Please model this.
Amino acid sequence: MNEKYSDRSGVEPADRHAGPGYSTLVAVWAALVALTGLLVLVSRAGQGAAVWGLLLITPLKASLVFYFFMHLKYEGLLLKTVLAVALCTLVVFFTLLFADTAFH
Amino acid sequence: MNLEAVLPHEHRDDFAGKLGMWLFLLTEILFFSGLFLCYSYLRAKYPADFHQAGSDMNVVLGVANTIVLLTSSLTLAAGIVAIQRRRRRLALGCVLATILLGLVFLVDKAVEWTAEIHHGLYPGASHLARQPPGVQVFFGLYYTMTGLHGLHVIAGISVLSVMAVWVARGRIEPDRPLALENSGLFWHLVDVVWIFLLPLFYLAA
Model:
């Protein structure tokens, strides 16, 4: 079955609510809990490890929520692009901030 | 005879409804991101003070609240699947469980704030005023960001309470669960914000 179900994706109405099932949702929840445990462990390993944990594990957890719980995986290109533009804007903000503070 | 002119026609555009909700969520993301930018700048400016302040945080309560919110996201996502599969009672149970978990989060947060205020760790307290400037800034950000997040949790619980009534009354239809889906999007975003707050404050030490 086609996984996309947005009204303008050309998918038939019967497929409009395709999305994750219960087992997928539970698996994602288990992964999120495990990653939380890993984040706590990594944060105990030292300042450098804590920063890397913050930069890698936290966005991964957020991505899982966006992708499965918020159904982004099953959305069309338009919604994904809108979100990507906003997130890229944020990356620019953070880059400009740290470029400023690093050479201030 | 033109039937379309005689039969009542319901205009609906679920995609537009969902796109509008996502645009609202983007404003929320940018709203919280301003605070995350403040945090990043001040942590880079006072790394030792943030490390010291982070040691005063209750990691167990922070992680427990994370598990509570992650579980609430699971129950709500499962509720949406249930309503789509025409299992209304299960969907109602899932939405009510989400509301209950949201309340548990707020009670947990209230217990935590009470303990911190009792220890003089709040803006304006004489104990905190004697601490280094970075520690004072840390707790200022902590109360601002977790407080704003808490307000969003309260808003989410309020919206989900309406959704629970709508599910119970059959107003959320299996082929048209947009209102419940959009409420879920808001709740999941509140969860994502907390996912970032955990390492910034509770694991800062």
